[in-house]
Amino acid sequence: MLFRQLEYLVALSRERHFARAAQACHVSQPALSEAVRKLEEELDVPLVLRGRAYEGLTPEGERIVVWARRILADRDALTSEVGALRDGLGGRIRIGAVPTASGAVARLTAPFCLAHPLVTVEVRADLSSEDVLRQLRSFEIDAGITYLREDLAEGFRSVPLYEERYVLLTDAADSLVHRTTATWAEAARLPLCLLTEAMQGRQVLDEVFAEVGVRPSPRVETDAVAALFAHVRTGRWASVVPHTWLHVFGVPHGMRAVPLVEPTRTVPVGLVTVARDPESVMARALTEVARRTDVAAALERLPGDPAPHPLQSGHGRPDVG
Question: Which residue of 35, 198, 284, 321 is most buried, as measured by CB atoms within 10 A?
């Protein structure tokens, strides 16, 4: 059995198409098909459902591709460990993040790249919280930045980074712009553009709205925080956005960001990695950067505010897991 055969099987599972899998592996389709067929012979089980086109993996194939990802991840971890001992850390680290946390990713990648100049960073910033954990389990990413839920499954380690809080983003001509705060009940009465209901960032908002006894009726829903800003810019909509995104876009001209109160709700966000021994050298290096970087302090002050917001972020809690 060769690593190459396992790589081809993983690519086929990911691409769900022989030609695309071959292209991703930089080989011909016949070469990939033959390598997968030989792997089936060696394991003595069918791995692929074959018809006129790719139809999926067999139940045996689904189980074996999990092992294939783990074996390849261990190979990559070993290669990185040896390379770090010889020349310093190098290679590629893959970070997955929920959309609302992507504005904070740079607070880690900047010091990480400074400490490890030979490493290339790949950021996948449009994942759901479930996708982050799933891709960690399947070794598709090395680390994730997501909500730290109380029911975070065993098998993960986490480092708290900051507490996500929320602001009402409105047109500068709105009647609320002269206020220093706005309530969730007041926000619910505005024409809103919000994230889609399937996203955990939206589910957090809906929980708070329900807590105060209101149910917003957004006319526009999107899966991109950038689209929220674009709609508010038209002057027809308001939105509720995490404060971290103000550090990406600032408060654009013609808009105003007002902290939401009654209640003041925060949700912990942190770095999550797979609990494995030995730990991936990439995950370990990023975890070390996260522990010594005060992300919460950097995000505490809203752009344009003369003084930090009084809400304490909660940074500095002990590691979880």
Answer: 35
